[in-house]
Amino acid sequence: MREAPAAGPGGVWVFGEQEEGRLHPVVPELIGKGRELADRLGLPLAVPVFGRGAEAAAREALAHPVDLAIPAEDPELWIYSPEPYAARLAGLAGERRPEIILAGATAIGREFLPRAAVLLKTGLTADCVGLEISPDRLLRQTCLSFGGNVMAAIVCPGRRPQMATVRPRVFRPAEKGGRGGRLETAPPAAGPPAVRKRRLEWLPETAGGADLAGADLVVAGGRGMGGPKGFALLERLARRLGGALAASRAAVDAGWAPPDRQVGQTGITVRPKLYLAFGISGAAHHLAGMADSDRILAVNRDPGAPIFSVAAWGLAADALEVVPALLRELGE
């Protein structure tokens, strides 16, 4: 059996996005892929974690196959802001010189990681759906281009670190099982970075119910919902079931649902335990974002709709009749 590499400078890093001591669900997914990449390169896998509760989240990371967790709880990191996060990650990376840095393509990862890449004078590939090590030991990053019609493979041969954000639910989470990794608290930064904005208030998300990317139950609608009134019914159903509202690209383009609810190649990738698809025909770019759901139930008037090819249960019926009937059965 090959020994694990020493958890020293360099290596592959997975940013440990967390809130109040609990890792974001995308982090175990990236740890699983990061472990694979690190083993291919013979390098350690490290997880830097920022903010209030960083040490608790770092210990959670060490329950996975991680060599090193690096919590930083500087006061300016307690409440997320992109400038302090970018400056702190760039400072740590400048000292330790990792080969690769990965983060989830979440609202936080998409905002601060490009800033860190600028500070490190390197490149970044956004919204990756595939990662692998090439024969010449470069990180080959796969992402969608031209509206999802082209799969682009990108490498960064001349700069380090190689940086990428990765869509949630693309990779399966790493199995729990530590490998004797250690915790190393990052020393305080030399001075607070310049901050151009401050948070006045925090309001939890209400539109669409639960967080879509991490939801275990998703209620999705397409063109067959007919308009905003149809989507209002779906939102009621999602709330009643404790799930998240989602939409096809056609419904988002029509203005019936906000863009952050779009599932598919050009939207969010989901992998819930149950995906309820109402009035969605099942175009290839939509199936790419939800076909790995554990169970799919589809309702569509067209019995030949492609969505039925991936559904565990299918009903050839008008979704505008089925959804109100479901709401009545659920007691509304």
Q: What is the N-to-C succession of helices and strands?
A: EEEHEHEHEHEEEEEEHEHEHEEH
In which order are the strands of the major sheet placed? 9-8-7-10-6-1-4-5-11
Roughly how much helix do the residues carry, as a percent range? 25-40%
Low-confidence stretches: 1-8
CATH topology of the largest domain: Rossmann fold
Determine Rg (CA atoms, Å): 21 Å
Q: How far from one another are the termini? A: 59 Å
Number of domains: 2
Spatial shape: elongated
CATH superfamily of the largest domain: HUPs
Q: Which class best fits the helix and strand makeup?
A: alpha/beta
Per CATH, the class of the largest domain reads Alpha Beta
Biggest sheet layout:
9 strands, mixed
Tally the beta strands: 16
Level-2 CATH architecture of the largest domain: 3-Layer(aba) Sandwich
Strand content: 15-25%
The DSSP helix count reads: 8
What does this protein structure show overall?
- This protein is of the alpha/beta class.
- 26% of the residues lie in helices and 22% in strands.
- The strands form 3 sheets. The protein has a 9-stranded mixed sheet, with helices on both faces. A 5-stranded parallel sheet has the order 13-12-14-15-16. Strands 2-3 form a two-stranded antiparallel ribbon.
- Helix 3 (82-96) packs across helix 4 and helix 5 runs parallel beside helix 8.
- It is elongated and about 60 Å long.
Write the layout of secondary structure elements.
Elements: E1 12-14, E2 18-19, E3 22-23, H1 26-41, E4 45-50, H2 54-61, E5 68-72, H3 82-96, E6 100-104, H4 107-120, E7 124-133, E8 139-145, E9 150-154, E10 162-166, E11 182-183, E12 217-221, H5 228-241, E13 244-247, H6 249-253, E14 274-278, H7 284-287, E15 295-299, E16 313-315, H8 319-329
